[in-house]
What we know:
Layout: H1 7-35, H2 42-53, H3 63-91, H4 103-133, H5 161-172, H6 181-206, H7 216-233, H8 235-246, H9 257-268, H10 277-303
Helix pairs in contact: 1-2, 1-3, 1-10, 3-4, 4-6, 6-7, 6-8, 7-10, 8-9
Protein name: Solute carrier family 25 member 48
GO molecular function: transmembrane transporter activity
Family: Belongs to the mitochondrial carrier (TC 2.A.29) family.
Amino acid sequence: MGNFQLEDFVAGWIGGAASVIVGHPLDTVKARLQAGSGYGSTLSCIRTVYRRESVFGFFKGMSFPLASIAVYNSVVFGVFSNTQRFLRHHRCREPEAGPPHVLSDLLLASMVAGVVSVGLGAPVDLIKIRLQMQTEPFQEANLGLKPRVAALGEQPAYQGPVHCFATIVRTEGLAGLYRGASAMLLRDVPGYCLYFIPYVFLSDWITPEACAGPSPCAVWLAGGVAGAISWGTATPMDVMKSRLQADGVYVNKYRGVLDCISQSYQKEGLKVFFRGITVNAVRGFPMSAAMFLGYELSLQAIRGDRVVTSP
């Protein structure tokens, strides 16, 4: 592995931290829309969260993603870049002489990154969703449960990410940390293909041939568009993942992905699979723009005067 480069992991960590800070408020809104109830629209959800929990409600559960998603994105970007470099090296005896980007290499590298992302990201996403959803009113008429919500002065289900982690392991076992992982796999493998591939080709298309690498403006635009495409198309499986992961804060309703799809469709129709698509696409643009900009600028700083290549 002579062409393995650690700097891709470092740059991915910085990009990941930037994306969490930019995207978490809309991520909270997305989670409430998909797994909660009683919201007519995105704006209605924003107003309701603000009225009940003030501006701090939008940043609920951010400390854990900030610490962990930065590491998660470090691995995703590092795996993608090094897998792509490895494939290019074995396809061409002189990689520099061949085309910089081949679709088959990008596709395979994206799929590998997607699989790795689920192994690392499922527990992180689960804890984030549980913390975001624990103040959500819950009612299941056929179970005879009364509406309940963690109001001021009432003890919430989880006191923080560490307590949430310990509670899940104690009540559901280690396997409980991977609740919704199958839906996440179905979301992330195609999702990363529609994330990295549009970014690479868009940034190449925007960048003039005379330039050694994409400008910050090109990175921002290509990264944002790629994020909007990826998150928009991933919405149906993202809805199922959110519901499976939120399941368990109060009661377990779903036996798996297929049961979740079946129950959701029977109760809410086809439109349920597109809940949060607007906030997903809108949130995807700034998050991914910040991600790729942080990644590319960090890579430039680490490599100094060396030519920067797209991931």
